[in-house]
Amino acid sequence: MKKVAIISPSYDGKIVCDHALSLVTLFQRVAVERPDLQISIAYWMGEALLPRARNNLFCSAFESGADAVLFLDVDQSFDPQAVLDCIDQPVAVVGVTARMKTPEERYTHRPEDNSKHVWNPSLKLLQVQYLATGFMLINRVAMQAVYDASEVYQDGVNQRRMICNMQIRDGGMISEDIALCEKITQAGFTLYLDPRYTCDHFGVTRHTGNYLKQLTEYRTWRGE
Predict the structure, then answer these.
(1) Residue ranges of domains in the chain
(2) What is the pLDDT of residues 5-50, one digit of tens each?
């Protein structure tokens, strides 16, 4: 049985309603359709430093023997089928993009320029440089590489690893997502995005997008 740990920081202890509904549907489907899967969920609440919360969650999942972790942010809703599809992908790291909380249509993976990504026709996945930790699945082999490459620190009575860390580089700030993805690629793994799905993103309003439509229009324009 494959053990998948969903890990989510929630500094104020809240999740959006649509996120909760997505989770309920996912667990219902797994119970009926997927006897080969054991999915757990862990929140880290009351921690304003999101990298620290993600570190705690990742380390706990890894050290308890999870076969994969799914970073899943509580301010995003998602298609439960996207989770199942990502779990079944024969790759080490795969994610789903989300609509950014901006007036203009933008998405959370990087670069934003579609010409910088490579389409893999056999996998039907997009090879990208950076995924967001809003929805990122990492299998056990890649988890091990990230864990081993991350600096050890003491967090109270627990020893943790700096899995997600913000950095200052060339006068600019590097987010935890970028830093984590760099560790993954430096370990020799490729980052993939499943463009069939787009997570909605919640702030003051709901931000909805369709990255597949944008990508299809771009590839049509390129004549691909």
Answers:
(1) 2-222
(2) 999 999 999 999 999 999 999 999 999 999 999 999 999 999 989 9
- Burial class of residue 101, CB neighbours in 10 A (0-12, 13-18, 19+): middle
Q: Which CATH architecture has domain 2-222?
A: Alpha-Beta Complex (3.90)
Q: What is the pLDDT of residue 114?
A: 95
Token pair listed for 170: 């060339």
pTM of the model: 0.95
| Interatomic CA distance for residues 127 and 118, integer angstroms | 5
The tokens for 157 are 């009575």
Give 150-178 pLDDT, tens digit per residue: 999 999 899 999 999 878 777 777 788 99
Residue 14 has a CB neighbour count (10 Å cut-off) of 10
DSSP string across 81-134: HHHHHHHHSSSSEEEEEEB-SSSS--BSSB-S-GGGSEEETTTTEEEESB--TT
Q: What is the dihedral of CA 189, 195, 199, 200, to 10 degrees?
A: 140
Measuring CA to CA, which residue among 16, 76, 65 is closest to residue 40?
A: 65
Residues forming a β-bridge with 178: none
